[in-house]
Every structure is written in structure tokens, then in C-alpha cells.
Specification:
Elements: H1 2-10, H2 15-53, H3 75-96, H4 99-104, H5 114-129, H6 140-167, H7 174-190, H8 197-211, H9 219-239
């Protein structure tokens, strides 16, 4: 016990770098948790908007003819703006829901990156100014503001996407890049139908461990990945010979 207190007296200064490192990990974990929750809400809202924009299938049945109503003069403009808005959102979700793409281009989901942050702000603005439907009757000022927001949204995503593809993992340390590379290799095993169920499950768990605290992976992306991992398992079960 005396030796411990002697060591503590002589090397008390070591506590400061240890505390600093621990604090850095804690802040990074907290940021990751907040980002996952925030991104989940954004993805759910985006998917809901895309679903609402998809016209339902028409069911053939006899019905009384509806009175002919003259479309709003702004309806064609709104339909065009809605399509452009939804196209950018679909491109964004293509990254957000694909773990492989997030690993390959991690800065596309990192709100600390200036260009990604600018894109996310533009998305919020476009979503906020979006009329309730193409049949809405916005004022000229509201229509102009929404059109400008959609243009900004598209441009901001194009810029953020190009930057993410240019940077790839260059903003990460050597150790972090190795973790990303390991996760990418494990991911290919996790969704490989030729691998055994045990191998896929182990690989999937390892992917989650390697990415934890490294990049923001939304809960929705995890659900999509788990379905991909489960598909080979289901296929293997169906191919198994019956007793």
C-alpha cells in the first residue's frame, strides 16, 4: 500500500492526460448517440414524405363521376418542385440506409463536416417550406421561397456528396481507417450467402463493434442491414434437406 501511495505522489501528473482521453471518448460517444437519434427522426420524416408523394394504386370500381375541377395554376410548378425535392431526399437516403456506403463515404453522415452540415440545414429549410400537397395554394412569395429552397437543397447535397467521395476516410486517423477497412470486410461476410449462419452472425456483430463511436449509423440503417443478414439465413434454412 505504501508503494502505491509513493507512486501516486511521484506520478500524480499522469491523471491529467488520462482524464483528457476519457473525456474525449465520452464526448464522442455522446455526440454519436445524439446524432443517431436525430438522424433517425430525419430518416423517418423523409421516408414519410416520400411515401406521401407516391400516388396510391388505383382500384377499379364503379363510382359516381366526380365534378371536373380546374387545377391550380401553381400545381404543375409544385409537382415539379416536389419531384426534385423527393429525388434529392432519395439520394440522401441511399447513403443513410446503406451501411456499406456509410463506411465507404463516412463524412456524408457527419454533421460536424461543414459541407454536410450545410446540406442538412438546406434539407430542413426545404422540408419546412414544402407545401402540404401539390394542390396547395401558396402565395407567389411562398412558392418562390420553396423553389429557392429546393434548388439550395439539391446544390448543397451535390457539394456534400462530392466532398464525401473526395475525402472518403482521409479525415480519420490510421487506427480509425483500419477499423473502417475491417468493418467493410466483415460486412461482406455478414451478407454473403456462401458463409455459414454462424460466420454471418459473428461478422455482423463485429461490424457493429468496429463502427461504434466511429461513424453515425442510424437505427433505420441497422434494420436494413439486419434484413440483409437475415436473408441468407432464411435461404439456407429453406435449402436445408427435410428429415
Amino acid at each position: 500500500m505504501d508503494e502505491f501511495w509513493a507512486f501516486a505522489r511521484d506520478y500524480w501528473w499522469l491523471a491529467f492526460p488520462v482524464i483528457a482521453v476519457a473525456g474525449g471518448f465520452a464526448r464522442r460517444w455522446e455526440f454519436s448517440a445524439r446524432s443517431r437519434h436525430k438522424r433517425r427522426l430525419e430518416i423517418l420524416q423523409a421516408k414519410a414524405a416520400l411515401k406521401a408523394a407516391t400516388p396510391p394504386k388505383q382500384v377499379a370500381h364503379a363510382a359516381e363521376p366526380k365534378p371536373i375541377t380546374k387545377p391550380s395554376p401553381t400545381q404543375p410548378q409544385l409537382e415539379k418542385l416536389f419531384a426534385e425535392h423527393d429525388a434529392v431526399t432519395a439520394r440522401w437516403l441511399d447513403y443513410e440506409l446503406d451501411v456499406a456506403k456509410l463506411i465507404a463515404y463516412p463524412t456524408i453522415s457527419d454533421g460536424r463536416q461543414p459541407l454536410t452540415a450545410a446540406f442538412l440545414r438546406a434539407k430542413k429549410t426545404a422540408d419546412r417550406l414544402r407545401p402540404t400537397s401539390p394542390k396547395a395554394h401558396p402565395t407567389d412569395a411562398e412558392l418562390a421561397a420553396y423553389a429557392s429552397a429546393v434548388t439550395d437543397y439539391e446544390v448543397a447535397f451535390d457539394v456534400a456528396e462530392r466532398e464525401a467521395r473526395r475525402l472518403r476516410d482521409s479525415d480519420f486517423t490510421e487506427t480509425e481507417r483500419k477499423r473502417l477497412a475491417t468493418a467493410q470486410k466483415l460486412l461482406s461476410v455478414a451478407v454473403d450467402g456462401a458463409a455459414t449462419p454462424a460466420e454471418r452472425q459473428v461478422a455482423y456483430k463485429r461490424v457493429r463493434e468496429e463502427l461504434d463511436g466511429l461513424i453515425v449509423v442510424s437505427d433505420e440503417a441497422i434494420v436494413v442491414l439486419e434484413k440483409k443478414v437475415a436473408l441468407p439465413l432464411d435461404a439456407a434454412a429453406s435449402d436445408a434437406p427435410a428429415d
